[in-house]
Amino acid sequence: MSDVLILDADQAPPTETTTPPRQPKWTDTFAYIANPDQFCRQNLEQYGPIFRTSVFGGTTIFVGSTEAVQMALNGDQNYTEMGLPNTTMTMFGEHSLFQRPDLHRQRKSALRPGLAGQAVQGYLPKINDVITQNLQQWPAQGEIALFPAVEAICFDVLVPLLLGVELNDAYFQGLPIASKTDLKQVYKTFFDGFYGLLPWRSPLTTFGRGLQARATLIKFMQAVIRRRQAETHLEPTSDFLSMMLVSQREDPEGVFSHELIENQCLLQLWASHYEISGLISSWMYQLGRHPQHFEALRAEQTASLQDGSDPSCLSGEQLKTMTFLEATIKETLRTLPPTSTANRRLSQSVVLDGVLYEKGWALIAEPRLAHILPENFTQPDCFQPQRFMEDAKAIDKYAYIPFGGGIHGCLGAQLAMVVAKIFASHLLRRWDWNVQSSAQFVQFPLKRVKDNYRIQVSRVNTH
Fold it and tell me: What's the CATH number of domain 5-459, 3.30.750.24, 1.10.630.10, 3.40.50.720, 1.10.486.10?
């Protein structure tokens, strides 16, 4: 990477320094929200991988080159700070990881054991069980609405995994939210509120309804936590909430305050559920559009399971052998990245490669730019999962950024990949599906297949 020159408050930039091209337009925010892919591609063609906009107000620089992405991701507590819209920060809450940058690293380190490593390995039986049981509810032959069908299963996987909650009517008795259906609906309202751009707290606005949903969900989390705290024995590897509660018992004055635990239950389920549901449905769509990969994927499944073990309960070792499956998931994330990954604000002016980025400007590290640059990926518009096998180590970590990077890199990335691989493996061994038309996508705030998009599925004979 080129050196980042951090300018003192009264320091003039070097001579011949330029600023990013393009004049911001008052319509930029609306154009970006309407179709982020189109917005990025059009400006990339005209101005290159770094350009100036007014997205979300003020001056916002979109960056896609590896050097500029690295600069944006690695400036925290040095020359950048969080730069999310105020409405989004309010939805995250005052006890989110983003609100206290001085405590971010400590909190993230404390949370990681519940979402990575041995904990995820311990989650495997639950993940396998819920996916296999729920897939049995799909029609043996017929149509499904792709995203809703996947989303329903992911919700049933992640709520018990993260909260230790049982998704039956009896469990919900006495809780502020009365059923699984209601919980999903309140979460959707909460999710939509994250990008309500009008900062009015009225229930007439998306943001206002999101805040109301947030308050309801916090009350729900508080009630669940009280119920879990009353359990005589908590196993820290059984679910994410148990890990936090055990840590709190061991060190009551430590990282895990009541408020932090409530907020992390709220946010981790929100982030995991929508990201993983979007990824799996996009993967099914891409495979349906590129069926030439099915043969190699199924041959890999046969090889990975030839030890005679129960195919309904995949192990961590078996998942590691599914390298081509992982490559197709990674290529899905490259070609259909769900969202931008870094919203930072410059706390000091910096110069990189002769370009001045001024204090107060926002930075967005945008996968929709980085993932389609020919210098990063040959034939970037082609779905080629082999690129993540043949020379995967040569792919710059700042060229491929579906989970962000730096100290704000996605905490749940490992969990997301594991759930996606298990879901995909069970699908490949038990189902055929085909795509008969191009999907329409919800573009913002998270790119995913629209609810009304349907595909044909049929159960295969496994005997």
Answer: 1.10.630.10
